[in-house]
Amino acid sequence: MMDFDAEATPARGPDLRFVRGWLGRYWLAIWFGVIFAIRLTAIVGENIGFDARLYLAATRAWLAGDEPWIVLLHQQFAAPPPTLLPLVPFTFLPESVGIATLIALSAFGVVLTIRLVGLPWWWLLFPPFLDSVMSGNPQGLLVPLILVGAGPVAAFLKVYALIPIVLTLRWRALLVTFGALLVTAPMLPWASYVAHLAELSTALTNQSSGGLSATAIPWLIPIAVVALIMCGREKAAWLAVPVVWPATQWYYSTLAVPALKGAPVAAALMAINIPGATVAAAIIIAWQARLFTLDRLRAAWVVRGPVAPADGQS
């Protein structure tokens, strides 16, 4: 007969601490990756570089003496006149080269954004970045241009870049922008743009399916405004466009990236292509800011004394 110990050693299950720790650290990267893969699968069947093609066609039409707003490639060109100027050099390239160049520049802008903001490299999987790059839209250049002191170029590419420029107190960039707008106004088709403004506004709304910001769900607008105020000036500067700008598209959320650092749940919401998700992200960031007293809120918005230059401010 064999002797057995009175107390048998209990069987141990698998040690899940490593798995839990890994998921706790990289859950946002996984979330980005899943949405990125789904979106990439959809984009493959679409017209890659569409925005670049549309922008270049409109710029060529303007240079030829036609109205850029008549350009239709399944969608209508509806950007304000200053957007045409930065695109002029690309019109001298063969169309395929010009489109590829704009896509490459957008990708470069994404890399610079991640580096300048100080985010992990898996932020390359942030889904709005994918939409910006694959469409060849200059949106991906806005954050790095503003941060390195080239805010006027960002404002010409996208007029709403003025919002983070103003709220981050880049006064020199703002003055240069207004000066450039005055100098270039006589050569740009402003009269034609104003004449077509109602039509272009309708086209933007239709092309964005109503948009993703609070303007797509009007009762969210006051909630969004309060959330932005409670975020403080520095955060609101980057969040305002995706949260309250009319007719926003998915790639607009790339402008919010500087405000998403340290706010993983808000970043996860910004990664979703659902109306109102950006407002929910702003509410979360407002809660994290803890500006629950009037003194804290005032301190987060009011500037007293000389303003220290922001990183890359010009």
Could you explain the architecture of this structure?
With 314 residues, this protein is an all-alpha fold. The chain has two domains: 27-207, no CATH class; 210-305, no CATH class. Helices cover 58% and strands 0% of the residues. The protein has 17 helices and no strands. Helix 2 crosses helix 4, helix 12 packs antiparallel against helix 13 and helix 15 (264-270) runs antiparallel to helix 16 (277-289). It starts with 16 loop residues before the first helix and ends in a 13-residue tail after the last helix.
Structural class: mainly alpha
How would you spell out the order of helices and strands?
A: HHHHHHHHHHHHHHHHH
Total discrete domains: 2
Could you tell me the mean pLDDT? 88
Count of extended strands: 0
Helix content: 55-70%
First-residue to last-residue Cα separation: 88 Å
The biggest beta sheet reads: none
What assembly state would you assign to the polypeptide chains in this entry? single chain
In short:
The protein is mostly helical and 314 residues long.
List keywords for this structure.
single chain, 314 residues, mainly alpha, 2 domains, 17 helices, 58% helix
Give the secondary structure arrangement, pairings included:
Blueprint (H helix, E strand, L loop, with lengths): L16 H28 L5 H14 L20 H4 L7 H23 L9 H9 L6 H6 L3 H7 L4 H6 L3 H14 L5 H6 L1 H11 L13 H11 L1 H12 L12 H4 L3 H7 L6 H13 L4 H8 L13
